Amino acid sequence: MKLLSSIALTSILTTTVLSAQTTMCFKENHKNMTTIETTNLSGGECQNQKSVQDMKNEGWNVADINIEKTKNGSNYIYIFKKEEQNLSSLDEKALEEKILNRLEERKKQEIATKKKEAYIRKSKSGEKLYNTKCISCHGQNGELEARGVSRPIKDLNLQDFTLSIRGYNNGDYDRGMAFVMKPYATLMDSHDIKNVYVYLRSINQKNEEKQEENK
Predict the structure, then answer these.
(1) What pairs with residue 23 in β-bridges?
(2) CA 192 – CA 183 distance, rounded (Å)
(3) What is the pLDDT of residues 138-167, one digit of tens each?
(4) pTM, 2 dp
């Protein structure tokens, strides 16, 4: 049973690629060489139902053959190959579109991954800044009305948040606590403002998701 062990180890099965198919069939201990091409073979596409001649009639070509003498005859291993014929222009177009679609999808996934990574970086940077500069007045999640005069900053959109910080910095915005906010505002550039906003947005989204889960 050396032949069968070899086949099991190599796991040679019918393989389809873009332009060709390859399969392996075999016959163990066949005694008459003159009848091998009309004898049903095992394995692959043959499955004890097709001979070498049958395979040829179906468009398969013998790509390789291995013959090994045994005590009871000979072991035959046939490698058949079939080239795909008449690939229409429609098939070529469909294949091209499929490849382009996959490339486009991969590009979208890469862009989405980069955006997610950038969002995480901004959020981490914003978290550090918020915890050192903002949390004492505005609360853990930006939910407090600082000293009773400031709006909860978690409810501000990016534009309002940016205008408020810039207003404190420029001295043209005061809801009663400008003297407290200005030292912090002067230390925040546009990147810092956006990073803090992204951080607040991320933690409040998580809180909202938890609330939905607990309902």
Answers:
(1) 80
(2) 14
(3) 888 888 876 666 788 888 899 988 888 888
(4) 0.49
